[in-house]
Design brief:
Helices cover 48% and strands 8% of the residues. By secondary structure, it is of the alpha+beta class. β3 (242-243) and β4 form a beta hairpin.
C-alpha cells in the first residue's frame, strides 16, 4: 500500500516473490566485482614532501568548518550525500549498493584534515583563531567518523542477517564491496559448518539444505521484508508517479513526503530520485 500526506486510500497487497532454491547454499563462490575504491598511496607520498609553508597554505583550504565542498549550502555536498546514504541504509529493509567511491573520498579528506590539525597544534606560531578553528574541525571530523562507522555497522548487520539469501542471490552480491563479499563468504561457511555439526549431521541427507521448500512451513532463509512501509521524501522535480498494483498513480512533487511499501519505491530509491526519512 502507499499513502501520501493528502491520501488515505490503499491498494491490494502483492503476492510474495518465490524464495531462492539454491541447494548449494554455503558452497557457492562469489564473483569478483569492481568497487571503485581508490588507493591513498599517491596521496600519502605527496603529503610526505610538503613543507611548513605549503602546509599552511593547504590549511587555509582544508581546516575550515565552512568548507564549501564538504559542508557548503546549495548543491549536495559530500558530507550531506554521506548522511543521505547512511539514512537510506538504516531505513531500508534491503542491502543497498556499496558507496565505495564516496567513502574513499570522505576518508581521504578526513585524513588530510587530521594531518593538518596535528601540525597546527604542534606549531608555536599557530594563532588563537587557528587553534579554535582546529577544535571545530576535529569535532566535525569525529561526527563524520561516527556516521561512517554506523553506515558500515548497519551494512554488516544486514549481511549477517541475510547471509544465506545473499549467497543464493547473485544480483544482491553485486551490492557488496570486495571486503564484504569475502566476509559474507567466510561467514556463510562458518554458519554452514555450525549448522552441520550441531544439528544437520543427525538428520537425513535430503534435509541438509536450508533452501528446501515446504508449503506448510515458513522458509528457513531470511529475506528482506520489502513489503515493509517506509517514509520517503521526493528529491527530484521530474520524479515519475508511484504506480500501485490496482493501477492508481500517486504524483510525487519535489519535497513531498509519502508513506509506501518499500517494494513500490525501490527503483526510485536506487535511481536517487527519493530518499528515506
Amino acid at each position: 500500500m502507499a499513502l501520501s500526506l493528502s491520501d488515505d486510500e490503499s491498494g491490494p497487497r502483492l503476492n510474495r516473490r518465490p524464495r531462492p532454491t539454491d541447494t548449494s547454499l554455503f558452497s557457492s563462490e562469489l564473483p569478483s566485482f569492481d568497487t571503485n575504491i581508490r588507493s591513498n598511496d599517491s596521496y600519502a607520498n605527496a603529503r610526505g614532501a610538503v613543507g611548513e609553508t605549503s602546509f599552511r597554505s593547504e590549511a587555509n583550504n582544508f581546516v575550515d568548518p565552512e568548507d564549501e565542498e564538504l559542508y557548503g549550502e546549495g548543491e549536495e555536498t559530500k558530507v550531506r550525500e554521506l548522511m543521505r546514504r547512511w539514512m537510506d541504509e538504516r531505513l531500508s529493509p534491503d542491502l543497498l549498493t556499496w558507496q565505495g567511491e564516496l567513502v574513499s573520498e570522505i576518508l581521504e579528506r578526513l585524513q588530510s584534515q587530521n594531518e593538518i590539525a596535528t601540525q597546527l597544534q604542534g606549531n608555536a606560531t599557530t594563532t588563537e583563531e587557528e587553534h579554535f578553528a582546529v577544535m571545530l574541525v576535529q569535532t566535525e571530523v569525529e561526527r563524520i567518523k561516527f556516521v561512517l562507522r554506523s553506515y558500515l555497522r548497519c551494512r554488516l548487520q544486514k549481511i549477517e542477517k541475510f547471509t544465506p539469501f545473499i549467497l543464493a542471490t547473485p544480483e544482491v552480491q553485486r551490492n557488496l564491496s570486495e571486503l564484504e563479499q569475502n566476509y559474507v563468504q567466510r561467514f556463510g561457511d562458518l554458519l554452514g559448518r555450525h549448522f552441520m555439526q550441531s544439528t544437520l549431521s543427525n538428520l537425513p541427507a535430503h534435509m541438509h539444505s536450508l533452501a528446501d521448500e515446504n508449503p506448510n512451513m515458513p522458509s528457513m532463509i531470511t529475506e528482506p521484508t520489502k513489503s515493509m512501509a517506509v517514509f520517503f521524501r521526493v528529491r527530484e522535480d521530474d520524479c515519475p508517479p508511484l504506480v500501485l498494483p490496482d493501477g492508481k498513480r500517486i504524483d510525487l512533487p519535489k519535497g513531498s513526503i509519502h508513506l509506501a511499501q518499500y517494494q513500490y519505491l525501490e527503483t526510485l530509491l536506487r535511481r536517487e530520485m527519493v530518499e528515506l526519512v
